[in-house]
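User: I'm writing a tutorial on reading structure tokens. Could you give me a worked example: one chain, its sequence, then its tokens, then a sentence or two explaining what the tokens reveal?
Assistant: Sure. Here is the example chain.
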Amino acid sequence: MYRYQYIASMVCALRTCENNERAEWHKQTLDEAMEGAPSGSGIDNGMQLMLAASTRQKLVFRCEYHHMNEGGFYDGWTGHEIKVTPGWRGPNIVIGGRNRNDVKDYLYDVIECWLMEKL
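And here are its predicted structure tokens:
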């Protein structure tokens, strides 16, 4: 099972048993699945799962990218919402937000690699 499939199944399980004793176990398992989320190399605040907006058929993540100028100094942030849905050849990934310095290409590669890890 790929990471994106595992996270989606945990989101679904958590929704199914929100009000019973298994909910805490599912939350912990979901937190463990998110531990390896992209962080650093510009994604300096990490990547968060937006649980309220996520379902079994759509995962929604949020991250911010810290940009650098030509002189190597940080010069601003862009915020990005990432929507992941299942596809025939892996996850369909749509990255929202401003595409400053073509950052979406970089984010796509990093996020796809992480989501396609086998668990």
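What the tokens reveal: Residues 3-115 form one domain. The chain is about 35% helix and 25% strand.
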